[in-house]
Write a structure and sequence with these properties.
About 30% of the residues lie in helices and about 20% in strands. It is α/β, with parallel strands linked by helices. Helix 4 packs parallel to helix 5 and helix 6 (about 130-140) runs parallel beside helix 9 (about 185-195).
């Protein structure tokens, strides 16, 4: 078996986590790392005995990697991913895909234009419970969906937001609970329930001393007349909202409680467990370089 040689750009929290995980995956190997902070790049490179760079251009242009993983702060995702695709290197970007719609569109356009594989890290779709939910929806066993609901309620301390200068700022992060903490839940929600055609939304900063939103809510309307509701928020205490269905399920290892109610007419809530249900199995910038997480 030929292993895919990965280079990681951005070796802060997420990048270092991916580096550790790669050590136990047979199909790939870590062969280079990049961070704009020289000391960090060197430390991670030495830890895994791989070459290190401080400029992502050099890593991508090298013959050391077959594919690239981007784990920098959000604003740098488009430029790095597009550069990699234009040089024929498949790329996986951490979520969110980008801060702006135009940035995301440019990444998708580059993937279509170059034909180079491109993906965003929404790995929770592969978890057994969500695969079972997708099979349930796709098979039509629920019938036509007429109601959806997502509740994401999690805890983030003020210390979490104070831990890095780019966190919870418009310039550094580009948003709050919507763009950083809840994208996995929003991804699963729209994957299973479909995209609405009308959204009435509200957001605010209520529970923390931060620039960006820590609560958001929306009423949804769908092309078939279905309606939905979304609530996303971070509390100031460690209490987790039980979920709107009353049976919200916490995804293993995700640190989040969420629920999708996709009831069919006359049917049961999608994740209500009953016998007749299906068993669900400080941001730093370098000259010409990217910031690190």
């Amino acid at each position: 078996m030929t292993k895919i040689r990965y280079g990681i750009v951005g070796t802060g929290g997420m990048g270092s986590g991916h580096a550790r995980t790669m050590q136990s995956i047979e199909e790939c190997s870590l062969t280079a790392v990049c961070d704009i902070v020289p000391e960090v790049a060197e430390a991670v490179g030495e830890e895994y005995n791989v070459p290190f760079f401080t400029d992502y251009h050099d890593l991508i242009d090298s013959d050391l990697v077959d594919a690239v993983m981007v784990a920098t702060p959000h604003y740098f995702h488009p430029e790095i991913c597009i550069y990699a695709m234009e040089r024929g290197k498949p790329v996986i970007s951490e979520k969110p895909i980008a801060v702006t719609v135009s940035g995301a569109d440019a990444m998708v356009e580059a993937a279509q234009r170059t034909g180079v594989p491109f993906a965003v890290m929404h790995q929770s779709r592969s978890e057994p419970i969500w695969q079972a939910a997708w099979d349930l929806v796709k098979s039509g066993r629920l019938g036509e969906l007429y109601r959806t609901m997502l509740v994401y309620a999690d805890f983030r301390s003020q210390a979490y937001y104070n831990s890095a200068g780019w966190r919870a700022t418009w310039d550094g992060e580009g948003g709050g609970v919507l763009i950083n903490q809840s994208p996995h839940s929003l991804d699963r929600f729209t994957w299973l329930g479909g995209l609405p055609n009308r959204v009435t939304a509200f957001n605010a900063t209520r529970n923390h001393r931060i620039e960006v939103e820590d609560v958001a809510a929306a009423m949804l309307e769908y092309p078939n007349g279905a309606v939905g509701y979304v609530l996303l928020h971070h509390r100031v205490a460690g209490h987790r909202h039980p979920g709107a269905v009353g049976r919200a399920r916490q995804a293993p290892g995700s640190g989040e409680a969420d629920s999708l109610l996709g009831a069919a007419r006359g049917g049961q809530a999608l994740f209500r467990r009953e016998p007749r249900d299906v068993a669900a199995p400080a941001m730093q910038r370098g000259a010409g370089g990217a910031a690190r997480m």
